[in-house]
TrEMBL record:
It comes from the Bacteria. Keywords: FAD, Flavoprotein, Oxidoreductase. GO terms for molecular function: oxidoreductase activity. Its cofactor is FAD. InterPro entries: Cholesterol_Oxidase (IPR052542), FAD/NAD-bd_sf (IPR036188). This is GMC oxidoreductase domain protein. Belongs to the GMC oxidoreductase family.
Length: 127
């Protein structure tokens, strides 16, 4: 059995950077795990029909309580893993690249109180 100095779980924003840095320290001794496939350029779904087959649901994961009911019995290994919790719904990516695959330049504008007077002058909304 091969031995590793580090194991990185996930290839999203954090996992990719950590995997890169650790592999410079220990070349050939870092294992990076991802639970999805590689999405080459041009392979993302382009139509509603393609999207319908691009969800992640593996019934053996015992996560049917947090998945939409329409997906709970299907066996799919697509890009979008949707989880429904009591106070929020979450979309998680399943693929090489993690959340960066579905990030889609979504920016939420913070409310004004986030930039109130307690913050240093160089961290202000107007700056």
């Amino acid at each position: 059995m091969k031995k590793y100095e580090a194991v990185v779980i996930g290839t999203g924003f954090g996992g990719a950077v950590n995997g890169c840095r650790l592999s410079k320290k220990w070349p050939g001794k870092v294992l990076i795990l991802e639970r999805g496939k590689r999405y080459p350029k041009g392979s993302f779904p382009r139509s509603p029909h393609d999207m319908s087959k691009n969800f992640w649901n593996v019934p053996e994961e015992n996560s049917s309580k947090v998945r939409p009911k329409k997906l709970s019995k299907l066996n799919q290994t697509g890009l979008f893993d949707i989880r429904n919790y009591k106070n929020m719904d979450v979309v998680i990516s399943a693929g090489l690249g993690g959340g960066s695959l579905i990030y889609a330049n979504v920016f939420l504008e913070p409310p004004d109180h986030i930039f109130d007077e307690r913050w240093p002058a160089n961290i202000k909304r107007k700056v």
